[in-house]
Amino acid sequence: MLLSVENLKVFFHSDGAVSRAVDGVSYEIRKGETVCLVGESGCGKTVSVLAILGLIPQPPGEISGGKIFFKGKNLLDLDEEEFQKIRGKEISMIFQEPMTSLNPVFTIGDQIEEAITTHDTVEGAEAHRRTIELLADVGIASPEERTKDYPHNLSGGQRQRVMIAMALACKPDLVIADEPTTALDVTIQDQILHLFRELKEKRHMALLYITHNLGVVAEIADRIYVMYAGIIAEVGSVEQIFRNPHHPYTMGLLASLPSRAKKGQSLYSIPGAVPDPAYKPQGCPFNPRCPHVQESCRRTFPEMCDFEDHHFARCPIIFQQRKGS
Q1: Residue 314: how many CA atoms within 13 Å on its side-chain side?
Q2: How does pLDDT run across 7-49, given as a tens digit for each residue?
Q3: Rounded-to-integer distance, Cα 6 and Cα 69, Å
Q4: Rounded Cα–Cα distance for residues 221 and 137 (Å)
């Protein structure tokens, strides 16, 4: 196993309240696999991966429990100097908005070369050659000319490709992509997803893709973890999740997807909102929004149920209904 997150808890302390942003999350990624972490904004997806990279601000954040194993080593045991040797080299991240991640006063070429030389002992000419090669790999036209451009000279799609090039600069084993296509139009989004598939096959890297868009997930995922209010609600392959979802939250997400069959109809929307992580309801955190809620859901936190063939969901109510039918 390349990455194994085990019962991770990340809490934030503010004004006397404790926000349980990540509340006992577990997931794993194998070499060369694409895993998608799915859920609405505020579910704790990004916080969980920032913990992997050692980027939780402490305080106000606190990793209150759990383990994160990467290549058999618990990352939570590392100091900052040890983390820096892994971050960007063995694990890299692509953020949602490249304009806030790219430095506006340095050229694209300078920034990619810095990513290379920080973790690799290469000369300036070799770093420049590899920069041009990376830009070509991610589909940037006239890559040598683009090295002289500043971020504001590029389109949104081109900037995101530059971010992907920087993430790949040191040939990492794992790339984490946090909503990398959210700010792009549909055509560019499709091009970026196609690029991810090509690069994954060419470089044999693992990809952890964070998104709220199940339509994107269908394009690239091998396995899916559905996250809600700081917990994992459902786990399964793409086919299992899309063909036979078991958790009411997953069902709601799928029902809200637009389709040709729904043309002219109003899209379904899950009622209510993700609870404040500082004031989660007792029992199942989804119970105030759930159409299948029973009294036990309001009292007892649900265990993960094994429905079939490594397809798990945290809903004993649906489990009993389907096993009984």
Answers
A1: 26
A2: 999 999 988 889 999 999 999 999 999 999 999 888 999 999 9
A3: 8
A4: 21
DSSP 195-229: HHHHHHHHHT-EEEEEES-HHHHHHH-SEEEEEET
**Spatial distance between the Cα atoms of 265 and 24, rounded to a whole number of angstroms:** 38
Please check whether residue 127 lies inside any domain of the structure.
Answer: no
| Closest CA relative to residue 33, chosen from 246, 243, 166, 204 | 204
Question: Please, which residues have CB within 8 angstroms of residue 80's CB and are 6 or more apart in sequence?
Answer: 54
Spatial distance between the Cα atoms of 143 and 218, rounded to a whole number of angstroms: 31
| CATH code of 294's domain | 3.40.50.300
Q: Flag whether 145 is in a domain.
A: no
Q: Which residues contact 297 (CB under 8 A, 6 or more apart)?
A: 283, 284, 287, 290, 317
What 3-state DSSP class applies to 310? coil
Long-range contacts of 126-134 (CB under 8 A, 24+ apart): 130/169, 131/165, 134/165, 134/166, 134/168, 134/169
Residue by residue, DSSP assigns 89-157 as TTEEEE-S-HHHHS-TTS-HHHHHHHHHHHHS---HHHHHHHHHHHHHHTT-SSHHHHTT--GGGS-HH
Residue 120's nearest CA partner among 161, 164, 83, 85 is 85
Q: Which residues of the chain have pLDDT under 50?
A: none
**Range of the structural domain that residue 209 is part of:** 3-90+172-258+269-324
The SS3 of residue 159 is: helix
- Strand 206-211 to strand 34-38: parallel, antiparallel, or no bridges (unpaired)? parallel
Distance of CA 301 to the CA centre of its chain: 25
Round to whole Å and give the CA distance between 108 and 125. Answer: 16
Q: Can you read off the two tokens belonging to residue 181?
A: 């296509």
As beta bridge partners, residue 210 has 37, 178
Q: Please indicate, yes or no, if residue 280 is contained in any of the structural domains.
A: yes
Is residue 108 situated within a structural domain?
Answer: no
| Both structure tokens of 161 | 């490709």
Omega of the bond leading into 288 within 30 degrees of 0 (cis): no
**Number of compact structural domains in the chain:** 1
- pTM of this structure: 0.90
